[in-house]
Amino acid sequence: MPFPFVYLCDLLNDLERPHVSRYPMLPKDLANYTKDKVIRWLRMHRDRLNALSTDSTAVMSMLQPENQTDRVYGLDSRSLELVIARAFQLPRRHYLDLQRWKTEPAQGDLGACVKRVMENMDTVSYETFIFLTPLILRLW
Fold it and tell me: According to the model, what pLDDT value does residue 140 have?
């Protein structure tokens, strides 16, 4: 049986929790928290990860996507922010809210800010959604 994706999601949710918390952790405490969660997760799933049916390379590449050379698109976070703002034709107030990921890390990363902006927007046109779908799928 292949390794269930939901277990990876559980780990990523646990690792994200202190980043989206109302009260940010100190860097040292955050590093210890991350290390403890990853070690505990690896111990809990050791048998499944070592199973012959598990593609351990796929699991590790999902945990460390930055190490995949085939997923480099030449977009840093600043460029991606501009692409998102242009594609959604964000008004200035929404664009300023989108930029909060840089100045207020406790509010979340770029993805969390995009989600918040999209939830706060009145409407997103269907044409914009159709335009963005291939772009997002290429970046995925």
Answer: 47
Task: Find where tokens 């202190």 sit.
Answer: 18
Residue the block writes with tokens 């998102």: 84
Average pLDDT of the chain to the nearest whole number: 81
**Is the CB of residue 71 less than 8 Å from the CB of residue 57?**
no
Label residue 133 exposed, middle or buried (CB < 10 Å: 0-12, 13-18, 19+): exposed
Full DSSP string of 69-133: GGG--S--HHHHHHHHHHHTT--HHHHHHHTHHHH-GGG--HHHHHHHHHHHSS---HHHHHHHH
By the 10 Å C-beta count (0-12 exposed, 13-18 middle, 19+ buried), 108 is classed as middle
Share above pLDDT 90 across residues of the chain, in percent, rounded to a whole number: 20
- Provide the 10 A C-beta neighbour count for residue 84: 21
| 120-127 mean pLDDT | 61
